[in-house]
Each structure stands twice: as C-alpha cells, then as structure tokens.
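One such shown below:

_____
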Amino acid sequence: MQYDWLKNIALKLIPRFAVAAAMFFLMNWIYVQTIYPTERVKFSKVAGKLDTAFQQSDVVYLGESSNTSFNPWTDTLAYSVAEWLQFYFDGGVKVTGISHDGYHVGMFRKMLGLISDERLKRKPLTVVVTVNMRTFGPAATFSANEASNQQEAVFYSRRLPLVNRIYVSLHHYDNRNAMEMEREKSKWWRLQDLRFSQDKLSGENGIAAFQGMDQIPNTRSWIELMAGKNYYLPSEVRNMADAYIKEFAWIMDDQNPRLNELKAMVDACKERNINLVCLILMPNRAHADAILGNQLTQYIDFNLAFLRDRLDLWQKAWDAKTGDCATGVSTLQVVDIPAMYVKTYGRFAGGEHYTDQYYPTEHVDAHLRGYIAAAVAKTVGANAKLNYVFAKNFGDKKLLNNCEIAQQWLGKSVHDLGFNVLVPPKNNMPNFTIKMPYADSLLRIWREKRQ
C-alpha cells in the first residue's frame, strides 16, 4: 500500500512518455520527408556522395584537397589521385573519391559512421584515408574553419535525423569560433617545449632532444625571433619562413587530438571489419630544408617517425588479435609515401613538384599524384584481394583503359619503383603563356643573406 502513490504516478507518466515518443518519431518522419534532404545538403555537401560511395563502391578514397589539386602550369594529367587509382582496376572494381578542402582524419573517422552493417555483410569494403602529418599540428587542429567541419560531421552519425538537427541547433559540437581557436593555437605555441620530446619512439631509450634549440624554447619565441630579423629580405620569403615554422615546428605526442582520432578510426575499422589503408602524404620538406635546414626538418622527420611508430604498434596489436589476415578478416595497411620515395630517389621530392610554392601544402603535380596512385593500387590490389589488373595480364589494353605503362618515372624504371605506373590519356593542356612562380630563386637569396 505504501507504494500506491508511485503506481499512480507511473500510470500517469507512462502514457505521456509513450505519446511524447510517438510524437517525436512522427516529427522525425515528417522532417525526413520534407526539409531534411535539403538541410543535409546545406550542412554537408558530400553526405549524399558518401552514401552512394559506401553502398556501391569497392574502394572509397577519403582525402582532402591533395586528392584533386594539380599544377595548372605544368600538368597535362589533371586526374585526381582517386581517378588515377581507378585505371588500375577493371570494371568489376569501383573506386570512388570523396574529398574537400580542410578535411582530416577526424572527419574521415566520423564519415565511417555512414557505413551500414548491411553493406559490410554484402561484400568487402576498402577505405583509403589520407594521413597528412601537417594537419596534426596546431595550425590545422585549431583552424578557424574547424567549427564548420564539426557541424558537418554531426550529419555523419547514424542517429535519427531529427536528433542530428537538434544537435546542430543547440551547437552540440565543437563550435569554438575563430578567436577561441586562435587562443588555443597560441597556447600550444607558447607552452609546448621544442627542445625535448616527452614521448619516445618504441624501442628507443631516453627522451629525444632537438638540435640548435637551446635558445628557442617554443614555437612562439621562434616566430618572434624571425620577425625581428631579416626584415630587409623579400617579404614573400619572410612570410614563407613564418608559415613553415607555424606548420612544422611542433612535436607529436600521444596526447595529440588528431592522433587519437586516427587511433579511434583504426579501432572502428577493426571492430566493423573494414579494410583500412592509411596513406601517409609527403610534406614539402625540400622547401623547409631550404629555409631553415635541419633546425626545422628535424621536427618533420621526428613527427613522421612518431606517426609511423604508432601505426606500426596499432597494426601489431590488430594482427595479434585477428590472426592471419588472409582468413578474411579486415586488414590495416600503411602506404608510407615519404619513406617509399626516399628509398627510390634517395631524397624527398623537390620543391618544384608542389603547386603552392610559398605555403606548405601537399598539393602536388602529376609526377607525385601518379606515384601515389600506383603505390596505393599495389597495396589495395595485393592485400585487399580485389580484382587488381597487375595480378592479371598487364598487357591487356582493355583492362588498362587505353593507358600506357610508364617505362621511366622521373628517371627511375618501374623495377626501381617496385611497381608499375600507368599513364592515362592527357586531359589538360598547360598554359605556356603563364610562367609558374617558383620559390627556389628567392630561397637562394634567403640562404645567402639571412642572419
């Protein structure tokens, strides 16, 4: 009898909750049937493309602007990396590229939420994601455009569409404005010590120490030091030096937010049986070396080594849990373009291969895009058990879609490269009346006269 009051309340509340839930689902249905498609396109221009790609494609290439950029002055091949990759497979394997400026591994991880369990049961899916080391740094992590990215990412969840819309209305995502992001960026530059790395690489003893940084404890002090010197040199190079310091003078560690996003993506692919290919892009180390030499490039080298090290640890942990990858479980593969290119050519790619000459982007010409596509094709075809033309009669012109096999690739034979490179038909003509601006000439002045 003492609980009769509780029973009476429950009898009143339960019907009300049921009515509220029914109304909510009804409103969700109305929302989906009316304005949701328009709003989804408004907030995420690639969501529809992702739906189609994940449902219909065998290989989905998730990238940023490096996928589609090309050198309009010199390239006769303007194919994106994903388009180039498709040439390596016959009609039985579909490759789709999805990319947009400013995307990063955090966005790619959330995009995987659109892959349905039904799709994964139907046939294997391979996802190639570009891993851009530079986007792990503070300049990209705390970009003023990140709030827009995070708003877009809300629609990649498999929640009810109306719930996603409520989240957007309530700003239930990382919606820090440009001023707040600039504050976080400045905080990183002021507080992270550039002289030592607190997180060491596996298998190595001690803490890594960086040379020539005794008097430059952090990125902010380095920027201020450069601002007060070399004021008489060309502004293009002084601005270039400032940009390269901001983009590369930082140290990766296990607390890095983008590294944690990458780890979460690796774990998600492991749990859902998605073949994941991590494509490590090559930073413009050549220009970084021309500007400040080893004092700056040592951070590029360490951060790349740290990224490789953690991917290797995650891969070993994955293999230890899943066993033999040939039994049909998902695979984790790494296409390390910097390491592969250095092994082949003995150095990083020259600065002339980068479209942006005064800012450190990964926008590259056909030489590097073709190299990347060939390297990814070999990995995807050999390890994801797809219908890879290299495993068939490579001389069959029907399979090659009118492409040619490159005998030399910037002075290296296909034997030196370790894989064949396809050269598709030309689809762009450079404008020879325009002379491409190269940073190298001004960098010579910088090296000769800077203090």
About this structure: Residues 4-33 form the longest helix (30 residues). The chain has a mean pLDDT of 87. The first strand starts at residue 59 and ends at 63.
